[in-house]
User: Fold these one by one.
Assistant:
Number 1:
Amino acid sequence: MKKFIQNLPKAELHLHIEGTLEPELMFKLAQKNEIALPYASIQEVREAYNFNSLQSFLDLYYAGASVLVEEIDFFDLTWAYLQKCKVQNILHVEIFFDPQTHTKRGIAFGVVVRGIVKALQKAKKELGISSFLIMCFLRHLSEKEAYETLKESLPFKHHIIGVGLDSSEVGHPPSKFERVFKRARQEGYKIVAHAGEEGDSSYIWEAIKLLHVNRIDHGIRCDEDATLVDFLIEKQLALTVCPLSNVKLCAVDEMKNHNILKLLHQGVLVTVNSDDPAYFGGYLNENYLALAHDLGASKHDLVALAKNSFKASFLSEEEKEKYLQLFT
Ligand SMILES: Nc1ncnc2[nH]cnc12
Ligand SMILES: [Zn+2]
């Protein structure tokens, strides 16, 4: 099964680049940039990765991201992930970044984007991996701050395909950002939002009705509302599901109880993704493997999920077709 998954052509659509920061690089950058870390060793960092909620993870994730300072740091981070993609036969990626995590610390928006984009361009040329970049607003911050970030992004619009919404979900519903997302749509950005990860199905409805999302990130709590599931099926509105993340953050108690296969069999356009692989103990192939081992996903299921990853992407119909041909 491992070999089968390895050989599957795959796209990854839900991946926070800051969530690919492995402890080794975190330590190296902390030393270079003279940033104090609350850990004595790499071993201690890994031991701290024991989460009981989204927030317990986010606290460490934002602390970890503080070691990223120079353009080359963002380049090195992104390049390390793209090399992993090459190894795992991931052919196309749509990467999230959180500009406010960095601009809040005085790092210029352009430093972040230029570092990431240089790695994406190198990967296209040297590894044949295609990519898009999506910036996310932090939903625990205000709508005004999201507006400022949107404004800062405009000189780099040619590098950014879409806008997303992440961070602490409960208490920060999509409705808080309705106007800024309207502005983002007017700028031509695609729209995605984390919804229904910890928040209930009303967060998913709001993302659909108020933000007019092109995709839902996570969305696993859609199954609380049969009308919503029917809507997702009818519209083929994709969910970017992250199985290992859901179990690590206790959004799902055990992998054997994950609903991704049930949703797949019902006809929802679900995809498999790794979210923050450095923190959750596995990259994309490990997520597919967990579905096979712990949920009984068949080869047929895994092929359907891999095909969905291209269908749900922001690639053109022609490009999607080119990738889907690889399955025939
Ligand atoms: N799983 C997740 N949910 C919300 N915000 C995030 N930022 C990084 N990973 C996230
Ligand atoms: Zn996420």
Note: The chain has a mean pLDDT of 98.
Number 2:
Amino acid sequence: MPPLEVEVVALEKTYPRPWWPWARPRGRNEAPRTALRGLSFEVEAGEVVALIGPNGAGKSTLLRILSGLLLPSAGTARVASRDVVRERPGCRREVGAALADDRGLAPRLTARQNLRFYAALYDVPPPEVDTRIEEWAAALEARRLLDREVRTFSSGEKARVVLMRALLHRPRVLLLDEVTRSLDPGAARRLRTRLLSDVAARGTAVLFASHDLAEVEAVAHRVLLLDAGRLAAAGTFAQVRPAAESVFAAVPREEA
Ligand SMILES: Nc1ncnc2c1ncn2[C@@H]1O[C@H](COP(=O)(O)OP(=O)(O)OP(=O)(O)O)[C@@H](O)[C@H]1O
């Protein structure tokens, strides 16, 4: 059996109540917000797993915890056999993350300079850095971007550089948060059909959040449906579809 690259057990996350007064308009007290409630699942090496669920279901919170950007409130999460809290630095090296709000590229550096900087941070062997940059740039049709300053990029162009950055150090686990959202349809299709399957074929575990169910059906070996921080269903797309349809069709309480 392939090794487990992501192991999540009874994971909880509650965002604390904001302490600053301007977060409590007209004396209203903002309650702590629970984003994950006892979530457990696993992802094997080489598996492509989709995270789906309505807005606010907890997908981004989960991906941020697994990439070491956010601490859980309870439960455990292990990535590449390392605990995301106790072994955070080692764990972050095993993860490549392209997250929605993680565009931390230096705007006045070129894409190539940004990528060289990250390659050094993630201990990519120096003789390999430029070859890997060229390879990923070719795969993501981004060679023409390499020597331009990032501040001149469109959102889709930045998304390509963020993806290259996530892949450069050959992570054991790749975490993607709605990464195809700003790509044009052709680039999104090529990412789905070629890149993700190539990455998974090399043994990388891929966990990606998406609202595009056609994309999920085309790419995912397995689907996890989150609803209000809980795992509502897990299985193949066909197995999860009925539960997903009822979750997405449910009328939010505020609108009922
Ligand atoms: N920094 C934060 N402070 C307080 N609450 C937060 C914070 N970030 C997220 N939340 C809340 O946690 C819950 C889960 O949010 P999260 O962003 O993980 O959902 P999501 O499934 O990624 O949603 P979407 O599909 O809209 O991207 C939501 O109720 C959200 O309002």
Note: Residues 15, 33, 35, 53, 55-61 surround adenosine-5'-triphosphate (CB under 6 Å).
